[in-house]
Design a protein that fits this description.
heterodimer; A: 334 residues; mainly alpha; two-stranded antiparallel sheet; 15 helices; B: 319 residues; 2 strands
């Protein structure tokens, strides 16, 4: 188990480093002077050749790329990269002081964690519940009805759902807060109220998908020999379902949950947080994208990729802990 | 009778799937006929604004956008069928043009995905060994990053460096950017299942026979292995297509795809959100259109899967 965890974390590290190299090279290829990464990292010192030369001298822009890469990564990881106009996306004051992107990211992370974890719990819980309804009534009318509902839920893009929920429930009907976030430790009820709509918008499509995936997986397990043996032993249907079907049938969907969980940090988080005005890492990233503030975009891309890679490694380790077969097969492919 | 024809027969008997095909076909026709609708029915273009013009509703003249800045709602008549947007543009015309743009981007992106993913998968599964491990690691790397984040970053870079790549000049906001980005992002979602299939086929006698008969590697891949992959490609493509259109709308929403005033689903959602109090019909119209499109495509995908009777592929929406 420990060997597996070590291997998985090592691969996570390699992935993160590769991703940072790719990000670095990508942004380095931007030729337009006005937007060139080198230029922007040189701060406001752009303009004529003389200032370019001074900036190049000061920031080492003519150094070999590996040296520049190393320096950039050091700056990003030690939190020396600043947002040009301050990192608070809700603050439109252009005169605000430059602020460390790392500090802003760390401040925003709990908001995003609340969103992603809550949405994950809702999606998995709802999906599991719907799948169990289907499995108990397999082939019946209820099964077909719930399956159809799951397909429908899965097909509504969460962008559309988020836009509709915010536009109507929060903005037009004023049933829930318009934007903002309240920490759980400060006021649990307000925390819940602010996150309820974002959770629904993010979770519903996933719940629909999970209901189908789990249903398929449970139905496959239910046909296996060990389940028949369990029934033949005279175990109650409830016990068979809980101990023999659920335990094995939940392993395949778990990989998908893990992938979705880690992808969430660079997926729906971006637009859900923008729509609901949640001051999380998604809003931070979107704000720096809107203002084309390159150094924070690169720093945020690297921070986000670290979060994604670590989250997916942790999930894989958790899955391997639950399913011993995976441990021996080396690095999982998902 | 081949498996393809067998599947087609089953698909034709599948009422639910056929219903989705009808919905999909109607939407596609409407999107494709957007210029016809604009010039013949509505008599306008997606960018013409009619802010100060009166429009007759039930015989009574009304301003397209009232003096308080409220755009007219659905009139259910040829001009301004779905009402107007904040600039007094015909919403139905914009919606059709937007759908056209989004669908075009999605379709080209997925075509690109198929063109890149299939040879990669064939090479990895056929040569195995080092080729396979390089290709697989590359796919794993792309796969381990969320499609949207990757898309946003790639779009930003392409839009900024857009000035010139060799002889091709790309303008910021060009449709080629989201097309390319989405096409690349989805490569692992298709290449990974295909590679697995090629790996399973590789040791089979018919492949060895072809090789022993002196067939060159590219020919073995294209004429012996490729025909076995069409089913998987056919099952996965509609789902990927739906995902691509959704990804396009998310990218455009985040200002990293199609840019206004050019309409697309994402641009229209963004505009709908901005005007949700004064003109809720804008958001509702685009939401219904996009949802119907995605629902019909996943219905078709499900039907194709049933027709081929393959296991559900764990393709979760890569947003």
């Amino acid at each position: 188990m420990i060997a597996f965890a070590g291997r998985r974390l090592a691969w996570a590290l390699v992935t993160a480093v590769l991703a940072s190299v790719v990000t670095f090279v990508l942004f380095w290829t931007i030729p337009d002077e006005k937007f060139s990464l080198a230029w922007r990292l040189g701060g406001a010192e752009r303009g004529n050749e003389a200032t370019r030369a001074r900036a190049a001298d000061k920031y080492g822009l003519d150094d070999p790329l590996p040296v520049q890469y190393e320096r950039l990564m050091k700056e990003i990881l030690s939190g020396e990269v600043n947002c040009f106009n301050g990192c608070d996306p809700t603050e439109t004051n252009a005169l605000s002081q430059p602020e460390s992107v790392r500090a802003a990211f760390i401040e925003a992370l709990p908001v995003t964690l609340s969103l992603v974890a809550g949405a994950g719990v809702i999606a998995i819980g709802l999906g599991l519940w719907l799948a169990l309804i289907c499995v108990r009534d397999r082939g019946g009318r209820l099964d077909r009805l719930v399956s159809a509902a799951a397909t429908a839920a899965y097909s509504v893009p969460s962008l559309v759902l988020a836009a509709l929920l915010w536009g109507f429930v929060a903005y037009r009907w004023e049933l829930l807060p318009l934007d903002g976030y309240v920490p759980l430790t400060e006021n649990p009820f307000e925390w819940f109220r602010h996150l309820l709509l974002p959770w629904i918008a993010a979770a519903l499509p996933f719940a629909g998908a999970y209901a189908q995936v789990v249903r398929a997986s449970l139905l496959e397990t239910i046909g296996q020999d060990h389940v028949r043996t369990a029934r033949a032993k005279g175990l109650s249907e409830r016990r068979v379902l809980r101990r023999h079907v659920l335990r094995n049938g939940l392993i395949p969907p778990m990989n998908i949950w893990g992938l979705d969980f880690s992808h969430a940090f660079g997926g729906y988080v971006l637009y859900v947080e923008v729509i609901f005005g949640l001051p999380g890492v998604g809003l931070l990233t979107a704000a720096s994208l809107f203002s084309l503030d390159l150094p924070p975009i690169i720093a945020l891309a690297i921070y986000l990729s670290i979060v994604v890679v670590v989250a997916s490694a942790l999930v894989d380790i958790a899955v391997a802990y639950l399913d011993p077969r995976i441990r021996r097969s080396g690095i999982p492919t998902t | 009778m081949g498996p393809g024809r067998h599947a087609l027969r089953r698909f034709r008997r599948d009422r639910a799937a056929l219903a989705y095909v009808v919905v999909f076909a109607v939407l596609m026709l409407a999107f494709l006929a957007a210029p016809l609708y604009a010039s013949l029915v509505a008599g306008t273009t997606p960018s013409d604004n009619h802010l100060t013009e009166p429009v007759g509703v039930n015989g009574e003249p009304q301003f397209v956008v009232s003096t308080d800045g409220v755009p007219i709602g659905p009139t259910w008549q040829p001009d301004f069928f779905l009402g107007a947007d904040q600039n007094g543009r015909d919403l139905m015309v914009r919606l059709l043009y937007g759908g056209r743009t989004s669908v075009l981007i999605g379709a080209c992106a997925i075509a690109l995905t198929v063109v890149i993913a299939t040879p990669l998968a064939l090479a990895a599964g056929y040569f195995r060994g080092r080729t396979d491990s390089i290709v697989s690691r590359l796919l794993d790397l792309i796969w381990s990053f969320p499609a949207l984040l990757l898309g946003v970053l790639l779009s930003t870079v392409l839009a900024l460096s857009g000035a010139q790549i060799g002889p091709i000049t790309i303008q910021a906001g060009a449709k080629v950017i989201p097309m390319t980005v989405i096409g690349i992002v989805y490569v692992p979602y298709l290449a990974r299942p295909l590679r697995g299939q090629v790996l399973a086929l590789r040791p089979q006698p018919f492949v060895e026979a072809a090789r022993a008969g002196g067939m060159s590697s590219p020919r073995v891949m294209s004429s012996e292995l490729l025909p076995h992959l069409w089913t998987t490609i056919l099952v996965l493509t509609p789902l990927l297509f739906a995902n691509a259109v959704v990804l396009e709308s998310a990218l455009s929403f985040l200002a990293a795809g199609v840019r206004p005033p050019e309409p697309s689903f994402g641009v229209l959602i963004s505009a709908g959100l901005d005007n949700v109090v004064l003109a809720p019909h804008m958001l509702i119209a685009v939401s219904i259109a996009l949802t119907l499109f995605v629902v019909s495509l996943s219905g078709i995908a499900e039907g194709i899967r049933r027709a081929f009777d393959t296991q559900a592929v764990d393709l979760v929406h890569g947003q």
